[in-house]
Design a protein that fits this description.
Length: 381
């Protein structure tokens, strides 16, 4: 619950910077609700830290016309910020804004200073500005004055006087949920235990007679691939999930395999079954690089059904059974493995209030992988 409160607070950063969006998704930008990774509130896309030693290069697009960076500055620091002519697209018209300092609740509710055209041409520049407050983290926004029809590059430079702008550490502490996954023997033991149980269940089914054509269905995120590094990077910025940062992470193809998953999927194939991945990573733009990531960690599979028009996995579960899943025959699913209650057919968080008997399939037909970082549980009252 501490992580939920923290993420709710940091999501208001985007709302404070962007104003009312009219978004009707009912979700907060910085909360991964289940795996509904395409749902978010448009606003400032917080990208990274800004240092006086190295300018940053970015790209403004029609869907990403407001890019944010964090600057750390102690009391009394004067900063100069400039979207430079060198490294920026010809004809680019920008607006620079500084918000802050960062409040205890993670928000940047105050707009400190804004500049439109003080730089070269229609570029922006802020010179020798004294930052308000008692020092800390400030958010710098680079925005296109009008949303560009084609990608436009910019270069943002920072200079500091009467203080150091080298950040002392992350903008917010790394949560216990992430530290537990990274450091604990218990997380690895639970993941191996879950996949060991899944293997034992398959062996039992093999002894009693598996169907002629069968499959196991696995989720991807926090079930097959571990996204701890992404979660940590976003937490260090004092924010959470955003669609753009998530797609960038997926394209890095850097997620390691969950402990035990490779041995389990290899065992499925050794018994003559098929491995089908059902994920809410977006078809094409995210699932193509996901295939390369899976290959890099040695995970073989027979089908991957990604999100197209809905995050509801039940139609894809049905397609596996009735033979309408692309490239797959009709298959009987004997096991489901996931980290979210919605990774299992026709289940939702509502089951938490039902009797113990409602959970009878877990450990038999359903195998659960631990994920304390995010999930559909975050929206429970």
């Amino acid at each position: 619950m501490l992580r939920l409160a923290y993420l709710l607070a940091t999501s208001s950063l985007l709302l404070a910077c962007a104003g009312s969006t009219g978004d009707d998704t009912g979700g907060d930008a910085d909360i991964i609700v289940g795996e509904d990774k395409a749902d978010g509130v448009p606003g400032v896309e917080l990208t990274g830290f800004l240092s006086p030693s190295t300018p940053v290069d970015g790209t403004l697009t029609a869907t990403g016309a407001r890019i944010g960076y964090l600057v750390y500055a102690p009391t009394g620091t004067k900063v100069s910020l400039e979207v430079t002519h060198a490294g920026s697209s010809a004809g680019l018209d920008t607006v620079l804004k500084v918000y802050g300092p960062r409040a205890v609740d993670g928000t940047y509710a105050t707009t400190d200073v804004t500049d439109d055209d003080s730089g070269y041409g229609a570029l922006s520049k802020i010179s020798g500005h004294s930052l308000p407050g008692g020092g800390g983290f400030y958010l710098v926004e680079v925005a296109a004055k009008t949303a560009p029809t084609a990608p436009q590059k910019f270069r943002l430079a920072l200079a500091c006087k009467d203080g150091s702008c080298d950040r002392p550490g992350p903008a917010a502490p790394i949560g216990a949920d992430m530290r537990w996954i990274q450091k604990s023997a218990e997380y690895r033991a639970l993941a191996l235990q879950a996949y060991g149980l899944a293997t034992d269940r398959l062996d039992e089914l093999d002894r009693t007679g598996l169907p002629a054509a069968w499959a196991v269905v696995l989720d991807i995120d926090e079930t097959t691939l571990l996204n701890l590094q992404y979660q940590r990077e976003r937490a260090e910025l004092g924010t959470g999930y955003s669609p753009a940062s998530w797609t960038e992470w997926v394209n890095r193809k850097a997620a390691p395999a969950i402990p035990g998953v490779k041995a389990f999927t290899d065992h499925v194939h050794a018994l003559g079954g098929k491995v089908v991945l059902v994920s809410n990573r977006k078809a094409g733009v995210e699932c193509d690089p996901t295939a390369a990531n899976l290959a890099a960690v040695g995970i073989s599979y027979d089908g991957m059904l990604c999100r197209t028009d809905t995050s509801d996995k039940n139609p894809r579960f049905d397609a596996i059974e009735d033979g309408t899943a692309p490239g797959l025959p009709a298959l009987t699913t004997v096991l489901y493995v996931g980290d979210n209650i919605k990774d299992f057919p026709n289940l939702s968080q509502d089951i938490r209030t039902e009797s113990d008997a409602s959970f009878a399939d877990f450990g038999h037909r359903f195998i659960l992988i631990p994920n304390p970082m995010y999930g559909s549980w975050e929206t429970n009252p």
